[in-house]
Amino acid sequence: MEGKKMISLKEFNTFGVQATTPLFNEVKTSLALQEVIKNKNYDNALIIGGGSNILLLEEFSRPVIKISIPGIRIINESDNMAVVSAGAGVVWHDLVMWCVTNNLGGIENLSLIPGLVGAAPIQNIGAYGVELSDVFFNVVAIHRKTGHSRIFEAEDCAFGYRDSVFKQELKDEYIITTVRLSLTKKNHVLNTSYGNIKESLDEMKVKNPTIDDIAKAVIRIRRSKLPDPKSLGNAGSFFKNPIVTQTETKHLLEQYPNMPYYSIDDTFGKIPAGWLIEQAGFKGAKNGNVGMHTNQALVLVNYGNATGASLWEYAKKVMASVKEKFGIELETEVNIIL
Ligand code: EPU
């Protein structure tokens, strides 16, 4: 799919906003990707996977490379562990289901996270007490300037909360083509402690959960709270949960004794952005076609034909309100693309 006329990106971003590109190329192999990036016209191309973590603004006019590299296989195994290798273009949830079906444990809590495998390490996706970095083996990535392929081990990736080297020092320098995960074949370490997983398992009448039960519980919770981008344009959590000092948290707790927070260490903690946004009065609030979701205030929603600019304007209004009420600066989790 390549040509001179402008190509619409509406179906390539889960917000479903209108934006166009003059050059679009979909690649299905690393070799094809290496060929495309040799072409100078693609120097500043936006690399997209599932388009589930981007907000495109109308002024956008860069070329686009869509990564559709397929394939899931086991490349190494012992009695207890298996290393699973997946192409960057595999749908993340399909990989989770493949692993659960093959009784490989470690990513069941990450069921139903939108997007493709290649994007998962970039923001170190996480949910319900598990982060990608917990099961990470390594990734293969192509250097955009030279076209060389490089392996990044965990220690090269500087994983943090929704963060990695690919969002920091190496931002836009590498394109991930393969992700490898180290998963358990037996004695799975089940993570049922987060939020309402236990409650959900109880409702499902499960006493001794398997990884399949956990996946099902997570799917139930996510479906009940988070809107499906197929029916309502959104990109999951729009903001990150802000990291604040324990001193600041203590101060806020005096004013808001019911404020939820997670301690990170002796110095820092995280406050759920959804709670801050709800307290600021934005849960379920709408302005025309734009609003914060009714069941999870952290999710910015396109209720109709909203533009990227109007979504961004609304998000900035939410940020200003939270700043005014709590003195906390929210940071976006979603990438705002110009
Ligand atoms: N809360 C509110 N109001 C809201 C939403 C949440 O008061 O509108 C409160 C809840 O009552 C709870 C706390 O905030 O006490 C945490 O809520 P929740 O368990 O829904 O998780 P979260 O911190 O809002 C994070 C991730 C989600 C992930 C869930 C579950 C971030 C930015 N978001 O949300 O990730 O699914 O935990 O692990 O860290 C995503 O990245 O797209 C995403 C959905």
Summarize the structure.
By secondary structure, this protein is of the alpha+beta class. It has eight helices and 21 strands.
Highlighted features:
single chain, alpha+beta, Uridine Diphospho-n-acetylenolpyruvylglucosamine Reductase, domain 3, Uridine Diphospho-n-acetylenolpyruvylglucosamine Reductase, domain 1, four-stranded antiparallel beta sheet, 8 helices, globular, binds uridine-diphosphate-2(N-acetylglucosaminyl) butyric acid
How would you describe this protein?
The structure is a single chain. The chain is globular and about 60 Å long. It has helices at residues 30-38, 92-101, 154-157, 197-203, 211-225, 246-255, 273-279, 308-326; strands spanning 7-8, 20-21, 24-27, 46-48, 54-56, 64-67, 72-77, 81-87, 126-127, 130-131, 136-143, 149-153, 174-184, 233-237, 243-245, 262-263, 268-270, 286-287, 290-292, 299-302, 335-337. A five-stranded antiparallel sheet has the order 7-8-13-11-12. The chain has a four-stranded antiparallel sheet with strand order 14-20-19-18, covered by helices on one side. 24% of the residues lie in helices and 25% in strands. It is α+β, with helices and mostly antiparallel strands and 338 residues long. Helix 4 packs across helix 5. Bound molecules: uridine-diphosphate-2(N-acetylglucosaminyl) butyric acid. Uridine-diphosphate-2(N-acetylglucosaminyl) butyric acid (EPU) binds at residues 127-128, 194-195, 226, 236-237, 240-241, 260, 272, 274-275, 278, 283, 296-298, 333.
